[in-house]
Amino acid sequence: MISHVSKLFRSYPILKGMAVYSIIWPTSSIVQQLIAKEKINYKQVFRFWLFGTFFDAPLLYGWIRLSSQMWASMSFKSGITKAVVEQFSYSPLAAVSFFSIMSLMEGKSFKEARHEVVDKFPQTYGAAIVFWPVIQTINYAFMKESNRVPFVACVSFIWTLFLAYMKQLETGNSQEEIEKLQSKLTEGLKVDLQIEKKADLR
User: Fold this and answer.
1) Which of 47, 49, 95, 122 is the most exposed place for a label (fewest CB within 10 A)?
2) Could you list the residue ranges that cross the membrane (predicted)?
3) Neighbour tally for 116: CB within 10 Å
4) Which pTM value belongs to this model?
5) Are the CB atoms for 32 and 161 separated by under 8 Å?
6) Residue 166: how many CB atoms within 10 A of its CB?
7) What is the pLDDT of residues 183-201, one digit of tens each?
8) Residue 108: domain span
9) Are 152 and 202 in a shared domain?
10) Which tens digits make up the pLDDT trace of 99-151?
11) Cα–Cα nearest to 135, from 116, 121, 154
């Protein structure tokens, strides 16, 4: 049985990454919820499993295949180059996809999904620039191509914990609530201006 699975992974390397991500992603969601002392939201766990297994793993596999063809060398310099390029190509796409797709799977509107991306992307991308270049330099410079997705998947347990944390953060309000809040703030500003004008007239 194990030999058949191993043969299957060798024949279809993408399945190895998907198998690893199918464990890493839902586990990170569970661990994050336990750390936060929350009741386990199994729907959220399922969404993490779905996204990690069927979207992020294939996306990462495709990027690694493409980058390996563009920079075939496994030198340290080549590894740094790939890691830097990744921060301006794959990383932004992955972060935007995570917040938007996860929001849509939660039943939110496109408008709400867009708001969550705008709200959470800057912090997430800033953390990615610090975290991933070191990891990916090691990955591209020293790991065989067939082992790169599993290596990243194992290291990314820490990253997915962070993503789970970011996902659980409230965006502040729903888009409708934000519009109401903006309206109230505008009305409050008008009232303040009127008070100031009356004070000036006196």
Assistant:
1) 122
2) 18-36, 48-68, 88-105, 125-143, 149-166
3) 25
4) 0.75
5) yes
6) 19
7) 544 564 454 445 444 545 5
8) 2-171
9) no
10) 999 999 999 999 999 999 999 999 999 999 988 888 878 887 788 877 777 78
11) 154
